[in-house]
Amino acid sequence: MPEITMETLTYRVDGTVGTLTLNRPQVRNAMNGRMIDELRETLEQVNLDPAVRVLVLRGEGPVFCAGGDLRDLFTDTHPVAIRNLLSHRIRPLARALITVDKPVVCALQGPVAGAGLSLALGADFVIATEEASFVTAFGKIGAIPDAGVMWLLAQHVGLMRAKDIVLRARTLTAAQALELGIYTEVVPKAGFEDAVNGLVAELADGATLAMAFAKHALRDAVRMPFDAFMDLEAVGQGLMHASHDHAEGVQAFLEKRAPRFTGR
C-alpha cells in the first residue's frame, strides 16, 4: 500500500503493520484541530482493516508531540466552546485510540508533552529513546491536564503517583517514566529502530485476536466488580476457543512447531 499523506499525518501499511506518523515537525507535531480529526478518522479506519494486525504511532522530527496547538485550538475561550472541543473532538480521539482492536506501539523518538501524553498513555507499548522526556506542562499555564491524560495516568501509576506528577507539573526523564511503568522500554537512540521493529514483528506474528480481547479486559478490570469481570473473562475465553488462532495454537503445540496466527 502506498503511503497516504494527509494535511497533518502520513499513514502507510507494510505487510500487516500500519504506521501512523504525526507530520507537523515545524511546530514539534503540536496537535491542531485538523490533526485531531485526522487522527480519529485514521484510527477508526485502521480498526476496521483486517489486514493490519499492529499499529505503530510515530512523530516526524526530534519531538514526538509538543501537545495541543494552543493558537489553533483555543481561539474561542468561552467555557462552552472549550467543553465542546474536549467533548466532541478530543474525547472521540482518545476513545478511538484506546479501543483499537489490535496492539498499538508508540515509538517515542523524543519528548512528549501536554495533550500528546494521551497518545503515549493510550498505546499498549511505549518504546522510547533516552531523550524522550514525559512533560506534564498544564499546571505551568494554570490549566489541568486534558485529553484523558489524568484518567490514563491514574490507571498506569495509581492515584498517589498521578497526583505527584500532575499537581507538581513534573517533567519525567525517560528513565523515570520507565521506572513508573509509563514506558515499556527505554533504549539508546542507536538501538531505537531495532527495538521498535523487533517488538512490532513479535506482535504481528502473535495471536492478535486474543490480544485485542485481553487489552480491553485489562483496561476495564480496574473498574469492574470481581464477578462481572469473571463473567467477561468466561465469555472471552469461550470466543477464543472458537477461533482459528486457538485451533492453530493447539495444533502447533501438538506438532512441536511455531504457530502461524492470522488474527481470526
Structural features, described:
The protein is of the alpha/beta class and 264 residues long. The chain has two domains: 4-204, 2-enoyl-CoA Hydratase, Chain A, domain 1 (Alpha-Beta Complex), CATH 3.90.226; 208-254, Orthogonal Bundle (Lyase 2-enoyl-coa Hydratase, Chain  A, domain 2), CATH 1.10.12. 46% of the residues lie in helices and 15% in strands. It contains eleven helices and ten strands. The protein has helices spanning 33-47, 70-73, 79-98, 117-121, 149-157, 159-167, 174-179, 192-204, 208-221, 226-241, 244-254; strands at 4-5, 9-14, 17-22, 54-59, 104-108, 112-113, 125-129, 134-135, 171-172, 185-187. The strands form two sheets. The protein has a seven-stranded mixed β-sheet, with helices on both faces. Strand 2 and strand 3 form a beta hairpin. The radius of gyration is 19 Å and the shape is globular. The model has no long low-confidence stretch (mean pLDDT 94).
In short:
The protein contains 11 helices and 10 strands.
Question: Which features characterize this protein?
Answer:
264 residues; alpha/beta; 2-enoyl-CoA Hydratase, Chain A, domain 1; Lyase 2-enoyl-coa Hydratase, Chain  A, domain 2; 3-stranded mixed beta sheet; 46% helix
Secondary structure topology:
Layout: E1 4-5, E2 9-14, E3 17-22, H1 33-47, E4 54-59, H2 70-73, H3 79-98, E5 104-108, E6 112-113, H4 117-121, E7 125-129, E8 134-135, H5 149-157, H6 159-167, E9 171-172, H7 174-179, E10 185-187, H8 192-204, H9 208-221, H10 226-241, H11 244-254
Parallel strand pairs: 3-4, 4-5, 5-7, 6-8, 7-10
Antiparallel strand pairs: 1-2, 2-3, 8-9
Helix pairs in contact: 1-3, 5-6, 9-10
